[in-house]
Amino acid sequence: MTDVTNAQIPADNLPAPAAGSVRDLLRMEDVKERFREVLRDRAPQFIASLSSVVYQNKALRQCQPWSVIAAALKAAALNLPIDQNIGHAAIVPYKDTATFQVQWKGYIQLALRTNQYANIHVTEVYDGMVKGVDPFTGEIIKGKRTGDKVIGYYAYFRLLNGFEKSLYMTVEEVLEHGKKYSKTFHKSESTWQKDPDSMGRKTVLKRLITRYGILSVEMQKAIRAEAMPDEGETDAGADQPGENAPDWTDPAVVEASMKADREALFPPDEGQL
């Protein structure tokens, strides 16, 4: 498999050809070469997949052709397939421009590639499954499912060194996030409307990973490559990895975090040394 860790995410300001559709561009030798540079012998398969995705999406066919190529090159640089049936990445139309989006399965794939995660999971939470959230640990108080209504989304990971973290967001919190950052939230063709559970999973998982997870260079590139995260989000800083994020691979950092949690929950008696 091609090592994409150091692959450069293509810029969006690529020179536009005089005319032509996406399929016309894909016939150009210099465009094919761009994909071969990243994907090597897998380039023909990826190009065929891109052609199929565009053919099946009228809105993409109406986008500026070169913006489609630029978005596809970002997916190729991260070695994420754009087939909607796989659900790792997508090329999403925004007005007349195609944008690159990492989907929730794509974030799991990128996390597993770091070889630092023992387990990572995200799921919908249904009626009755959550009694509340522990105010001290942030962990959910589990209950038994009593209905089919989705009330929230839960993400969890455990690193190989034993550090683990989880995050629960209610449906209301996720929808508020979408309304705040997504310009296409209310559009009928938006994934927020067509598949809200998918966006719910992505929102809670992305927030958990960027705040507490180990981010490889590849993962940081993926997050920043989403020029308008979550289908037209205008706040590029939303759930972005911080420059001073803790290094959870360092045992001393993990122990210090656990010690701080213990002291917060069980403060020493007054006068105790």
What does this structure look like?
This protein is of the alpha+beta class. The protein has two domains: 1-102, no CATH class; 104-273, no CATH class. Helix content is 42%, strand content 17%. The chain has helices at residues 22-26, 29-39, 43-55, 58-61, 65-77, 104-113, 171-181, 191-194, 196-212, 217-225, 229-232, 251-265; strands spanning 89-94, 97-102, 117-126, 130-133, 140-142, 150-159, 164-170. The protein has a three-stranded antiparallel β-sheet. It has a two-stranded antiparallel ribbon with strand order 1-2. A two-stranded antiparallel sheet has the order 4-5. α2 crosses α3. The radius of gyration is 21 Å and the shape is globular.
Annotate the secondary structure layout.
Blueprint: H1 22-26, H2 29-39, H3 43-55, H4 58-61, H5 65-77, E1 89-94, E2 97-102, H6 104-113, E3 117-126, E4 130-133, E5 140-142, E6 150-159, E7 164-170, H7 171-181, H8 191-194, H9 196-212, H10 217-225, H11 229-232, H12 251-265
Antiparallel strand pairs: 1-2, 3-6, 4-5, 6-7
Helix pairs in contact: 2-3, 2-5, 6-9, 7-9
In short:
This protein is 42% helix and 17% strand.
Q: What is the oligomeric state here?
A: single chain
Spatial arrangement of strands, main beta sheet? 3-6-7
State Rg.
21 Å
Strand residues, percent = 15-25%
Label the structural class: alpha+beta
Largest β-sheet summary = 3 strands, antiparallel
One letter per element, helices H and strands E, the order comes to HHHHHEEHEEEEEHHHHHH
